[in-house]
Every structure is written in C-alpha cells, then in structure tokens.
Amino acid sequence: AALPGPAPADWVQAPLDPSVRAVLVGFDQHFSYAKLCQALRYLLRGGPDCLLVGTNRDHRLPLEGGAGIPGTGCLVKAVETAAQREAFIVGKPNRFMFDCVASEFDVDPKRTIMVGDRLDTDILMGNNCHLTTLLTLTGVTTLDEVRGHQDSDCPERNRLVPDYYVDSIADLLQVLEE
Hints:
single chain; alpha/beta; Rossmann fold; 2 domains; 3-stranded parallel beta sheet; 8 strands; about 15% strand
C-alpha cells in the first residue's frame, strides 16, 4: 500500500490491523518505505509482544555471470534498524528449521549432509547442527574465503569451514554415479 499522504504525519494515519502480533521479513522484491513504516508501527504498537521474525540474513543473492542482487538480510536489517531490535531468524544458520524437520522425521545428523553455496548460512547451519557440510563454489563463496577461515585462530571463523567442497553440484552427481 502507498503511504497515505505527502508528509510523515500522514504516514502514521494508515489503519493497523488489531490482530497482527508479528512482523515477518522475507524476500520481497516490492519492499518499500511504506512497508518499512507499517512494520515499525506494528512493532511499536505491540512492543515486545509483537514478534519480529526474519527468514534469513543472506546479504546478497548470486546471479549467473557473477552478478548479484541485495538479499533478504538487507531488508531484515532495515526493519531491525528502524525498530532498534533484533529479529528472530527462522532460516539458516539458525537451527530452528533443522529442529522442525528433525522433530517430524527420523533425521540422523551423522548420516545427513548439508549442501550449500554460502559459508555464513548453509555451512554454519550444518556445523551448528553437527551435520557433514559440503560447499559448492557456484554461489557467493570463494575457496580463498574458506582458506582464510580455516587458517584463523578464531573459533567463530572456524565454524564457517566446510568438511568438503566441490566446484559445482554437478561434480557431486558425477561421484554419486560412480
């Protein structure tokens, strides 16, 4: 919805749904200042009882040819900044998603592999959940980044190191066929 009027005093006049008890921030190609204003208004009205939930903190989404676009983390950060509070992230690297799946299915972490193209979400979640991790180098992560984390004395950086890596998921498929 558009902002109701030309001035900031007008923007706080749009009606709020009294049943809203949470603000969810996910990928939204139509994210706008008007939506940011509404999110803040709900969070201020509800105080700590109004949840702020984010789907993930991906800072960039990779596109073919090395291009990228801003990721959901940019939108989450905008709402967090306006609200002056941190969102609860339900997606990677938080183990919430894994725990939900594991509660419904018989998942053995020792026999489960997390495959992904990002250290800060995919690999970190796999390591947080004690899974074997496999990094594909087709996303935003480079092998130099992995080596930098691997060579670090910082435990937090070491948690970003995958167990294995492949240039492409196609490489994994080739090995599985053998």
